[in-house]
From TrEMBL:
This is F-box domain-containing protein. SUPFAM superfamilies: F-box domain. It holds the Pfam family F-box-like. Residues 37-78 form the F-box domain. It comes from Coniophora puteana (strain RWD-64-598) (Brown rot fungus).
Amino acid sequence: MASPFPEKTDPQATVAETAEGIRRLPSRPNSFSPSYRLPPEVLVRIFIDLGPCPLATSTHVCKYWREVSLEFPCLWSIITIESHERSTGRLRLFLQRSKGTPLTITIHGIQDRKLYRELIKELSSHRCRMQKLLLSFNSNELQTTINFFASDFPVLSEVSLEPSQTSNPGARFALPKDLMGNAPELYSLRLCACVIPWHSSTFKGLTRLQLEAMWPLEPSPEELWLVLKSATALEDVRLQDVLSRLEPAPTSWPLDADVDLPHIHHIDLTETRFMEYAHFFSRVRIPANAHVTLDVITTYRGQGSIAERLTWLPPSLFSAVRSESTPSLALDMTLGPLFSFIITQTSTQHPSRGCERTSDLDCGGRINATFHHHFKYACDAVRATFNSLWFDAPLVSIRDLRITTYRDRGEWYLEGIPWSDILSALPNLRLLHAQIGPLSTAQLIDALEPQYHGVPVAELRELRFPPLAVWSKRPKLEGVAHVFEERARAGSCLDKLAVSKRLLTESECARLRRIFGSIELTY
């Protein structure tokens, strides 16, 4: 039988329990907050998106957030040290909380030599778990940097090195041959304004190589071929302003090249003169489905065209575009002070110049090229580059063509486009979007008329002429309806036509409405 009298309690225990309840009162409202009830994995994803800088602050939001952030060491393994850093405190905090996880380290713009040495010293004891290092080193502490790389880096896979331009702007640095000889897992290397000897074994295991701003330490042709031949596994090569010793331009595009890069996914030549670009592609062979990015200076002050002996584009770049087995591609062209074109899969609506999907051959990009012409030679140079596209066999994989021309001092670039050559080179074209001058528009309409040998681009289903303000002072086009009536009789009728009313007379508009199931008349 239970006692009718309550058990005696320890007064001190009661006081302690009450005090603990009072202490927890401020945090109780957090338990009703949606952010407090987020699953840990969702909260970790949020912390990752915040980046390393706000991470330490987020641990003070509430007890739950702090517990979650400290429970996942990987959150603290991405460490960025910027120029505003004044001590090693934050670095030590992140290194401690990251525990044994692999590290991604970024150090940028540290001008204080003492602080730079302290940061490097702090990192030295964690070399064994350093996986990715982006180091903008203090050029006044070059020896400190070299000594740092003297020990083993067993898991280091990606390295980016460049001098901090704030400490010694414009300087270039030659680094020791064995600088990264103790990093057996290294596959990605970026060097900017600093070089290691070109015969270094460091290049052999790379799959990604990026070289920038090497002058006057850029490689000779023999040294560059040596690097590329030794790195047989290369998948991504990016060269920016490092080919100035590649000259002269070759006399022809050879069928066979000396350097074979069979695994290349992406290759990028930026800030390159024509002779350097031509010399490079006359010696290097890459897969037909590689993504090629070009930024080429074709002519410059005091010199005319230096590509008179060559087509401007090596035929090897278009081998995939000429293949029936290649997925449908789109060609987007711009004609103005510079000539540029982009070839992508038709499903890629907005092709990206900086595609980073180096592990995927099917990134959607094929060729992204820009050719800069000096104003004195621009018209002839643009025409020569443009005509190189249609050289050799048809581009059977191109299904969409978008072409835009610009005016200079009232004159259209490349007025009088050779549409017969273009339409012959694009036999499977289905969409044509032409923002061009009046003469080129009239010539395009004429080129679409059926001939005795057949219908040009018989598969064409959509034609678009975006409106241009300058057309208000131009004469109307004649014979447009006649051309499309003839195409319809030949069994090649467009599904859609988009054209400005300013181009057509009222009678032409009425006839076109009878021909097309879908016509879009704009102003």
